[in-house]
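User: structure tokens for Transcriptional regulator, BadM/Rrf2 family, please.
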Amino acid sequence: MLSNTCRYAVRSIIYIGIKSSVDQLINVKKIASELDVPMQFLSKILQIYVKAGILKSFKGPTGGFSLALDPYSVSLYELVKIIDGDQIFETCVIGTKPCYSKNSNSMKCPVHDQYSAVRSQLTEFFKNETLGAIMDNYANKTDDFLML
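Assistant: Done. Predicted tokens:
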């Protein structure tokens, strides 16, 4: 459903959210090592979130990343949309072009009606699930972030 890039990104942001603080930044080398993600690739992904205002980045020997926003104000939808766009929440499950027209029902794909309800639920879930809630769930269950 989500691209590998998006999964790496979300896992990394959760990791940063849990491990960083005002006094402790998390560097990309540590994140890449802990989550088994290629460091150069991860660095590029995280810079996208810095540009989007989700993360802060600090350079230098003690530099690294921290969250720029209250994690309870950042939805999973926002995190996914930044990397994968919102097509997953709008397009046909079997990969056709948008399978409906607002002005006509004649262009529906064979699974449109069944998937439409699922897609609505999925969209609601992603919009209502916050980074903070996800971090809380991890913090309450385990310290093993390799499971992310």
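User: Anything notable?

Assistant: The radius of gyration is 18 Å.
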